[in-house]
Every structure is written in structure tokens, then in C-alpha cells.
Design goal:
The protein has 3 helices and no strands. With 72 residues, the chain is mostly helical. The longest helix has 36 residues, at 5-40. The termini are far apart.
Length: 72
């Protein structure tokens, strides 16, 4: 345990820095997995205009509506 308030504050800030780094790495891995899923689905093979239009339409409808329509 830290002996002084300054040491305790420094230890706390170091822990916060490490936690933020872990959070950033996790977000990076999640993004990589999402891109991999899109790639496996074949969507990255679409030309950019077609993919952008598809994503824009999904954004406009909302994820719940898109899932509902795909299940029908």
C-alpha cells in the first residue's frame, strides 16, 4: 500500500492508465472481429458505392427493422 497520499494518487493514476489501455485494446479487437464478420459474409467484395448504399439503408431503417425484414 502506498505510504503517502502522493504515492497513492500516483498508483491510482497508473492503474487508471493501464485500465484505459486494456479498454482501448479490447475495442480494437472487437472492431477487428466485426470487420472479419463483414468480410466472411462477402460484403467487402461489393463495390464501395453499393456497400455504402446498403449500410446507409440499414442505418435509416435501424438494426431492429433490418433484422425483422430479414427474418420474414
Amino acid at each position: 500500500m502506498a505510504k503517502t497520499l502522493e504515492q497513492e494518487r500516483a498508483a491510482f493514476e497508473e492503474d487508471a492508465r493501464r485500465l484505459e489501455e486494456r479498454r482501448r485494446k479490447l475495442e480494437e479487437r472487437e472492431r477487428e472481429q466485426a470487420i472479419s464478420a463483414v468480410e466472411k459474409a462477402g460484403l467487402l467484395k461489393l463495390d464501395i458505392k453499393r456497400l455504402a448504399a446498403l449500410v446507409e439503408r440499414m442505418k435509416l431503417l435501424g438494426i431492429d427493422e433490418v433484422e425483422k425484414r430479414l427474418k420474414a
